[in-house]
Amino acid sequence: MPVYFFHGEEPYYTDELTQVFENEIISEEERSFGQTVVYGRDTTLGEVMALAQQMPMFGTLNLIIVKEAQDLKFEENETKALENYIENPLSTTLLVFAYKHKKIDARKKFAKALQKSGMLFYSEPVKDYQLGKWISEKLQEMRFKTAPNISNLLAEYLGNDLSRIQNELNKLKIILKEDEILDETVVEKHIGISKEFNIFELQKALGMRDQNRAMRIAHFIAQNPKSNPLPMMMGSLYTYFSNLIIYQTMNGQPPNIIAEAMGVNPYFLKDYAQAAAFYPLKYATRIISILREIDMKTKGLGANAIEDGELLIEMVYKILNIGQLKVAT
């Protein structure tokens, strides 16, 4: 295809694919005269279209890459030329747009033309609940040997910035010896995750109903909201207590069947068995309601604006004291 238009909120895939075009389509010897890279903030759509209409100087292909294309002004009078080009592209030109951090307006005529021609490629963000799986697949692809739950630990700390995750994994690949296991100690040392104060330690303290430790961790995390986004922490706790409900409703079935239903390593079932002693089924279902209530508050519904740190402390307190609270389910 002569035109590729990458767009979407997730820049990682757009960057990766753009890099493939930049490094692998035209040989290094021919790039100086057969490849042009421009940036949206420094050019206009009219200038890009003029470049696309040029014949190759020496080789057989003219590669035009527009990086940061979201900074281009797609004015109605200029997009007409793009629409015409999409319908009648030059066979000797390969035109690539890297439009990052957002979608293009699907109502625009040029967007419809791209869609119709199969030249529009959407880079969809990875959902928070999919992030652990995404990292796990990356770890396998890069042939890491890992301790259980490392992908979820990395997901909680690094968030869904895929480029940052990839950079950290590249760094760890260089640092680790061939047979060295990527475990919590390695992550703490080289990425800087606090072993004592993270979502997994909070989860563990809540599972043991250790009030002093859980509140101490909550207060620490509340002081670092950027490193510990509340929505991601709530997502993790929602998964944890949802799994606790699954564990209790499937109690008595083979451990591997329960673990598969929960989507966890069987190694962690002992932790859920311990938590089940503190949070019987009626408490676990109430906690899900607490998490939904806090989620509503983060969105400004049913409460005045409250800092995320305060909401975290409120959430942890209510979970620990769930037996004494009246909760609407």
TrEMBL record:
MF terms (GO), sorted A to Z: DNA binding; DNA-directed DNA polymerase activity
Biological processes annotated in GO: DNA-templated DNA replication
SUPFAM superfamilies registered for this protein in UniProt: P-loop containing nucleoside triphosphate hydrolases, post-AAA+ oligomerization domain-like
Documented EC number(s): 2.7.7.7
Gene3D superfamilies with a match to the protein in the record: 1.10.8.60, 1.20.272.10, P-loop containing nucleotide triphosphate hydrolases (3.40.50.300)
Pfam families, per the entry: DNA_pol3_delta, DNA_pol3_delta_C
Keyword annotations from UniProtKB, A to Z: DNA replication, DNA-directed DNA polymerase, Nucleotidyltransferase, Transferase
Occurrences of domain DNA polymerase III delta subunit-like C-terminal (ranges): 198-300
Recorded catalytic activity of this chain's protein: DNA(n) + a 2'-deoxyribonucleoside 5'-triphosphate = DNA(n+1) + diphosphate
Highest rank taxon of the organism: Bacteria
DNA polymerase III delta N-terminal domain residues: 4-120
UniProt-recorded name of the protein: DNA polymerase III subunit delta
